[in-house]
Amino acid sequence: MKTLLTLLALPLLLLASARADLLIQPNDVVGIGGDSITQQHLYSAFMEDYLLMCQPTAGQKIVNFGWGGETAPGFLARLGTDVYPFKPTVMTTCYGMNDGGYGPINDDISNRYKVAQTGIVDALKKNGVRVVIIGSPKCVDSHYFKGTADVYNKTLGTLADIDKQIAQQEGIPYADVFDPTMDVMQKSKAKFGDDYVFGGGDGVHPDQNGHLVMAYAFLKALGCDGNIGTITVDMGSNSATGTAGHEIVSDAAGVVTVKSTRYPFCFSGAMDSKNPGDTAPVTQFFPFNDDLNRFMLVVKGLTTAKAKVTWGAASKEYTADQLGKGINLAAEFYQNPFVDQFNKVNDAVHQQEEQETQVYQILLHNMDNLKNNLATGVDSAWQQIADAAIARHDQLFQKSADLVVPIVHTITIAPEP
After folding, report:
1. Which of 63-72, 132-141, 361-370 is least confident?
2. Residues 354 and 315: beta-carbon distance below 8 Å
3. 104 — phi, psi (to 5°)?
4. Mind spelling out the 3-state secondary structure of the chain?
């Protein structure tokens, strides 16, 4: 009996070990703090998309706490009014852009930033936040920044070093946003030209291309392992298997139909597009697909030198050696059967994040003043309003989560000479 129980428990142990590095646990509330870059609802939406569709955790919720023009001391001052009512258990922060003063670094700037960032970490820990991830600022665009970009990027790099030091001292994860954004900016401009917009038209607020890099940094810091799933097809035995989240509905003669509840992350635009609103082009400059987006197809038993793989409306040829080692469908087929539903979820996420901004900026942040100036002595009524607003947020989040429906799709492997 003991042996049987051990065998039954083994799959659960394997599943737990496979996700041991993921810092999000079931029923966690993930808060995303930052300034106007965070309030753009772009990298936060990409993070939420990923945590809902690509690496989901039961019962989780995500809340954006971005506020335009904010510094680290400002966030520290509003934790009690704006953040704690949502009861976050995991928190990411992204400050420094405004803290640096848009000029050269000096001791006053460094000290004020370090004190505030350390204070944020300590306060969050004391108020029930189990995981705090301190993120660095991003770089500014070398072409479009209104000041001297080299000077301010040196300032932002110094603030990033302070964040890394705080993370080490506090024993918490560090999300390096500065180095990847700087690296991708340089590589993308080298290919597309210096006028390629990576850091936004004002040099500070990026479009979706820059925000994808920011999301990558935070998702890596959260411990996301990038294993979306693997479909293995054996042409010799005419059979197929799928890992967790991918059920084989049918398989015959190289035509495999799969029902998937885990999505690959989906991108927009063509690989040669210079539109900063397109995310596909920027993926060639950093390892998003390798690190976070591996949806693998492995084909065994091919008796021909190559085969044509068709997924959705697109087809590509691969050698038997490539297919035997495995190809990443998510990286090879940017237009795929998941794109339409992925975009629907993303649209719902944006609606949810816009609502939560109104809740904490308009209602919660001003609650004490409203109570004192409009109606004193009825605290319970104000609390009911706050609870109703947060409940509405939960409904909108659930609407986003409910859109993550199983996708039935077909992969065809046609042997070729």
Report:
1. 361-370
2. no
3. -65, 150
4. CHHHHHHHHHHHHHHHHHCCCCCCCCCCEEEEEECHHHHCCCHHHHHHHHHHHHCCCCCCEEEECCCCCCCHHHHHHHHHHHHHHHCCCEEEEECCCCCCCCCCCCHHHHHHHHHHHHHHHHHHHHCCCCEEEEECCCCCCCCCCCCCHHHHHHHHHHHHHHHHHHHHHHCCCEECCHHHHHHHHHHHHHHHCCCCCCCCCCCCCCCHHHHHHHHHHHHHHCCCCCEEEEEEEECCCCEEEECCCEEEEEEECCEEEEEECCCCCCCCCCCCCCCCCCCCHHHHHCCHHHHHCEEEEEEECCCCCEEEEEECCEEEEEEHHHHHHCEEHHHHCCCCCCHHHHHHHHHHHHHHHHHHHHHHHHHHHHHHHHHHHHCCCCHHHHHHHHHHHHHHHHHHHHHHHHCCCCEEEEEEEEEEC
pLDDT of residue 369: 81
Q: Is the pLDDT of residue 310 over 50?
A: yes
pLDDT score of 9: 38
Q: Which fold has domain 24-221?
A: Rossmann fold (3.40.50)
CA-nearest of 15, 9, 6, 40 to 245 is 15
Both tokens of 195, joined, read 């006028």
- Alpha carbon 64 to its chain centroid, in Å, reads 12
pLDDT tier for residue 203 given thresholds of 50, 70 and 90 = very high
* Residues 316 and 308 sit within 8 Å (Cβ to Cβ): yes
Residue 157 has phi, psi (to 5 degrees) of -65, -35
Residues 6+ apart with CB under 8 A from 23: 90, 131, 133, 173, 222, 223
The length of the chain, given as a count of residues: 417
For CATH 3.40.50.1110, the residue range(s) in the chain are 24-221
Query: How high is the pLDDT of residue 20?
Result: 53
Write down the residue that tokens 């999300």 correspond to: 175
Cut 0.70: pTM above it: yes
Q: 114-118, 240-244, 370-374: which range is least confident on average?
A: 370-374
